[in-house]
adenine phosphoribosyltransferase (Spirodela intermedia), 201 residues
Amino acid sequence: MARGELGEGGGEKVAAEREAAAPAEDPRLQGIFSSIRVIPHFPKHGIMFNDVTTLMLRPQVFKDTVDILAERYGGMAISAVAGIEARGLIFGSSVALALGAKFVPLRKPNKLPGKVISEVYTLEYGHDCLEMHVDAVQAGERILIIDDFIATGGTISAAIRLLDRVGANVIECACVVGLPKYKGHFKLNGKPIYILVECRN
Ligand code: AMP
């Protein structure tokens, strides 16, 4: 399945459909949902890009996002939050601060200066790679992985493999927004996935 593919009718129905599909359970989720701008055909034709930078322009909504995640994981003895480049670094480091946990950046190739381990993963077209400093996490540590968006799950799967390789214990993977199939009890590489709001697909 293509990542965030556009359906018939293009972007005009986006606002109405997003409103209709908005979650009702926690009032803060509605604000998060409606603050994510959807840009059709970015970075290429057919992709519905979920732009979370508009969420970050609203300090209360940004705070709500971090608060909800900190509330969920506050009692889970998370020792490290691993954030995925690029927007996962922003949400992940914020949640790490709120939890009093350490923050571990998972970055694209050749960005980290120390000794790294790498995991290649498949994109819709081609491949990409995530790297982590080998000494950032010790075996047995309880890890929360954070990214902004989950589509195919390839990126999160690579992140889980990196943490698995050093013997860390990935407790859960959280994304701000994702495909509807991830809402519920979906698992990736045996690890639970948690998304705050569903994207339009
Ligand atoms: P995937 O590996 O297919 O789950 O893609 C998730 C990663 O790609 C995340 O790091 C996202 O930032 C980025 N991404 C993929 N598709 C989109 C999209 N439609 N909107 C925003 N970000 C996306």
